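A.,

Following up on our hallway conversation. Structure tokens first:
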């Protein structure tokens, strides 16, 4: 399990499907507090654990499995 609370802007995130995302920012006041950017430039958000969803999780979700600090 990962903990995105320790990430810094620009860290690389690897999804369970092998895609590399970039960590953008931590917004603790948000329901999904971590902003990420996909390789195609689109944005997304994650839980502290790197999950796409808190209660419902799908096999197709790009949950984060590894953090590569910059």
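Then the amino acids I'd put at each of the 70 positions:
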């Amino acid at each position: 399990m990962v903990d995105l609370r320790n990430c810094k802007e620009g860290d690389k995130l690897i999804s369970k499907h092998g895609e590399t995302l970039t960590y953008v920012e931590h917004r603790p006041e948000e329901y999904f507090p971590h902003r990420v950017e996909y390789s195609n430039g689109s944005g997304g958000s994650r839980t502290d654990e790197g999950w796409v969803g808190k209660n419902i999780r799908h096999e197709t979700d790009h949950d984060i499995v590894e953090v590569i600090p910059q």
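The mean pLDDT is 96. Curious whether your intuition agrees with the design.

B.
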